[in-house]
Amino acid sequence: MLKNLLEPKSIAVIGASEDVSKPGGRLTKNILTKGFNGNLYLVNPKGGMIQGVKAYPSIPELPEAPDLALIGVPAKFVRASLEELAAIGSKIVVVLSAGFGELGPEGKKEEKLLAEIATKHGILLLGPNCSGIMTYAHASKFTGAAFNLVRGGIDFISGSGATVDFLAEHAMRRGLTFNSFLTVGNSAQSGVPDIMEIYDDGYGPDSSKIMITYQESIVNPQKFLKAARSLNKKGCLVAGIKAGTTQAGSRAAASHTGAMATNDTAVQALFDKAGVIRVSSRMELVDVAMILQCVKGRTDGKRIAIVTDAGGPGVMLADELNRQGFEVPPYNERIRQRLAEVLPPGAGLNNPADCLPSINGPVMEKVLNILMEEVKDDYDFIVFMMGDSGLSDNWEIYRVLDDAMHKSPIPIIPSMVSVLSSEVPLRKFREVGGCYFEDEVYLARALSRVVNRPKIYEPESGAVGYDRVKISHLMDDQHGALTPQVTREVLQAAGVRFPGQIELTDKAGLKNVPFAFPWVLKVMGPLHKSDVGGVRVNINNLSDAEKTWDELMKIKDASGVLVQQMVKGTEVIIGANREEGYGHLVAFGLGGIYTEALKDVQFALAPLGKEEAGRMIQSIRSLALLKGVRGEPGMDLETLQDILVRIGLLVTDFPSIRELDLNPVKGYGKDIFTVDARIIVD
Amino acid sequence: MLKNLLEPKSIAVIGASEDVSKPGGRLTKNILTKGFNGNLYLVNPKGGMIQGVKAYPSIPELPEAPDLALIGVPAKFVRASLEELAAIGSKIVVVLSAGFGELGPEGKKEEKLLAEIATKHGILLLGPNCSGIMTYAHASKFTGAAFNLVRGGIDFISGSGATVDFLAEHAMRRGLTFNSFLTVGNSAQSGVPDIMEIYDDGYGPDSSKIMITYQESIVNPQKFLKAARSLNKKGCLVAGIKAGTTQAGSRAAASHTGAMATNDTAVQALFDKAGVIRVSSRMELVDVAMILQCVKGRTDGKRIAIVTDAGGPGVMLADELNRQGFEVPPYNERIRQRLAEVLPPGAGLNNPADCLPSINGPVMEKVLNILMEEVKDDYDFIVFMMGDSGLSDNWEIYRVLDDAMHKSPIPIIPSMVSVLSSEVPLRKFREVGGCYFEDEVYLARALSRVVNRPKIYEPESGAVGYDRVKISHLMDDQHGALTPQVTREVLQAAGVRFPGQIELTDKAGLKNVPFAFPWVLKVMGPLHKSDVGGVRVNINNLSDAEKTWDELMKIKDASGVLVQQMVKGTEVIIGANREEGYGHLVAFGLGGIYTEALKDVQFALAPLGKEEAGRMIQSIRSLALLKGVRGEPGMDLETLQDILVRIGLLVTDFPSIRELDLNPVKGYGKDIFTVDARIIVD
């Protein structure tokens, strides 16, 4: 399937036209201009020649089923064309025609029909209202003919055609190369995740190592998750935008492609779990892709070596790198000495290496050679920053840079700042395959996004003492809110600890309570225990307990005493909510005011890996409080991690759980107990 | 002075040369290329003609003292040239020559000498190691001749010459216009704040309304503050970068211009108090300047109307606007109806108005007219977003836009996204004075920076009960840490409340204690009160107090009892630290763990205005806790504000205070007391 998308042996244009202001005409022109090596079939009721190519009067007259068929006829004729294509055995159909779901319910109904027909015949349907596909091998897209795609470049799968063009113009101005553009239009049948799955299924050694995506709604979150994780493991990093996440944005998205508002917390958790670098603007997406193109798979490391020809931008770069958590370690004595031998007095030797504006090609070659020889063990990336002072030929310098980028043991990431005065040498640099940033601060931010990208974790498949069978038995036939007793039993069967408790009707039983002081004693029998003074906390020894027993039993209707372990310590909350399509979102935060007033909560999609749960905990702002302040012992983070993993397992195994709340979870060190809990199932 | 900088009637180039690869030669060429209307005097020992202009063999031979003299001779001859210029009466001298402070201590000494000579003769000295000045009237700068400046554009004052060129290239590519570039090089005598002061002193009705600055060190924070605030009040907004604020950045800055590390908290507080919009990259500075150029002084408002020709970018824009706190209110029924009359089916009518890619000039004119008529009362800004679909002539659309930008009742801010395919129409748009963003998300962020810019507050000059004379008397001859007693008296004289306390030697005195329960009773006499059980808290009534009195007086060495009002409630800390050159940095934060573990503290430079103090309080992350959670009353924010104002007054009136700490400040509602305090003076 992927091969037929990227390199079809035959393409049919249904609705081809001489008039290039019509989609069908523009599309034909683009395919012809770009040059397509296979068979191009044009279909137009009038037949004859269109743009110099023979046109068939109808689909049934085509000599073969095209690998790829594109429909550009008016909306009312689309269904018939699709059916005819199905009849001759077409398997990929792209509907460029507009006039469907974006116009209202009528159009929505019609595009649903198209999807049903396509699915029935095993056809992959893109669109309607879609601008097409463009790859290194063909330009089946009715906008943006100016683009020149390169095999092995970046794949861009987009829910918005305009976004492809607008992003590509910026990207290409800076030398980013693309393997394919694929737009899904209204996603009547197939959305971005479906296409990602096709790219993943067809992934091979020559496939692109970088994929970028734009979505306004995630039509199938689970498919997105699976495809992105799989691509990631095969060595293809994915970055993307999910727009329409605010009130104004989702209203705009609704009128654009009919996308529905989704909970952005779930979207973020999805991207994180999928290992997809999430950004919110075209420029940021270009920047992240630029880093990925420069580093060629070497995506980790914190130590940066800087070469520049100007002080100020070097300072701003060093500042931003520091802010983003990178290090800019000073060059050692030997590097400084070697640089001093080739650079003039006044040059900076200390990282940044400030080569001064008088730098030329031959000297830059020496500087880069010194760095490539010296920095490979102690640095992870070289950032190269160059303006045009007019004092030397910048193309000489870029040529040296291009050579170094190919042979350097660590990635070199360039920022070219003289966008006007270096216009000609920069064009030459792009022509030899060079790519670059135009601002050093954005470079640092994009590098940080890549290095600090979400990692893929393998979820735990079980845990010691986690008793799936028992839970299953307990959950049988449950609906709505579980009783406190069943809640407790379910969670205990999942390995979650509760404070000890025992119901006594005999005072002598106090001697055999199987847990330590302090205790809480609660009278059994009376309905409103607190109102009648029936709850006593902080019982620290047996004699106090016995005295309290006597007092409690004097209360009217007292039938016995509930003895509970009294838990002190820090409070956290752990919860899980089901988000349709996404699975369960597990939440972790500090209890009480921290969650209520400070919104200091972290989320991740279940099921969780141990490290993943650990990252949730480490990411709360109030982590210091969790670890213990002012001599308090705090909570053992591994124990919390273990509880999170168990909750992730529980909601994954029992998706009927709609809501789950452990609040508070309380304790010190490893002695962490769930004091109160609530589970709602449906 | 400013007039002579911007429009000198005569310019002298000392070290003029035929060789344009030398600064003196390049500079001469730039001045000639740009065209200078006054007298240009070249000086070169060889005399003769240089670049077609007569050269004088020496400075004394010049026919008059030039308004502006630029020195481009080798470093060792600079001092002599300066002295000769001083002798003929020059008042502005720019030293372009490098080879001074940036090379080490020797050069530092030499440039200090230059500064002394200049100051002695009342000369404004720029440089050394400075790339010069460029204005709408002359191009006295040895780099960047390509720039075309426009009277009334933006003033850019920079501590880095390369940063000017690099920023300007980006800015001009997008149509930003500049009034002047001024670089200060090593700032031997005059730095960015000094130049700002000159621009402020010479500010007139024709002056620029926008100033941008780049600094690696703030040579004179107080001058920066004064000039920026004064410019702001005159209608000129200032935005700027202070680089070199991280460890790596300040090392880079040190090797660039010898800037020293400064406390970034103080820098941020300085920018805030000065009303200067602070950014950290060239691009962000261009973006903020772009907003200011578009909005022509209308810098407030939250409600955005959007016009676009493409869905996706409209969604990303609406998202970012929402995230930045803007509103994108839906168009009302009348606007929707009027838009529907001119736009094709499928167009979005609901804000964003999505005009679809088929939009052309005449239709866009109608759309903009509708919006200009309808939105002026309900919206504050129009954001206009346009790509190039190839389906119509974009220049037609830009021409309509240009016209609308001139006559619209509310500012129109454009984002032009097809940077390659619209190259020609965009050039035309810039030629008629148009300017634009290239990314809608960056537009939203920059607009937010402008709308949410730091405001200028007038500090309070006094407060009820603030007794400057008494404090002055108390502070007389004080050094080091003040005693608890003096600390209390000083703060009380400033109007800060302490909990009541009274020393009693007679039990009967308990009846007349002038403050309410609860009390703390502390035995007087014994050295380590706590160790001997001499501190009793939570005394709630007189009989308990009398009983406790008896117990305390039984303690060995007891000589009496200190009765203190016991304060309950929320805890905050208030402090002040002197930062050399900046004045005092006043700090406010929630007490205890919030300050220690969560670093939730806000800072502002003293003296404070009431609203300014209010903003500090409102800006802490834990504000909800301060206001009271779970039914607790919280603290009265105005009372806290009042304490902050008093502390600001105190440290401003008594700059010998090096450190001041009120920790904790405690209470509920308006009853807020300083429980413990510390003042160190020098």
From TrEMBL, chains A, B:
Keyword hit for Nucleotide-binding: yes
Keywords: ATP-binding, Nucleotide-binding
TM spans (from-to): none
Every ATP-grasp domain range: 488-681
Classification of source organism: Bacteria, Bacillati, Chloroflexota, Anaerolineae, Anaerolineales
PANTHER family referenced in this protein's UniProt entry, alphabetically: COA BINDING DOMAIN CONTAINING PROTEIN, PEPTIDYL-LYSINE N-ACETYLTRANSFERASE PATZ
SMART domains noted in UniProt: CoA_binding
Gene Ontology MF annotations: ATP binding; metal ion binding
Source species: Leptolinea tardivitalis
Cited InterPro entries: ATP-grasp, ATP_grasp_subdomain_1, CoA-bd, NAD(P)-bd_dom_sf, Succ_CoA_lig_flav_dom, Succinyl-CoA_synth-like
Domain of life of the organism encoding this protein: Bacteria
Name of this protein: ATP-grasp domain-containing protein
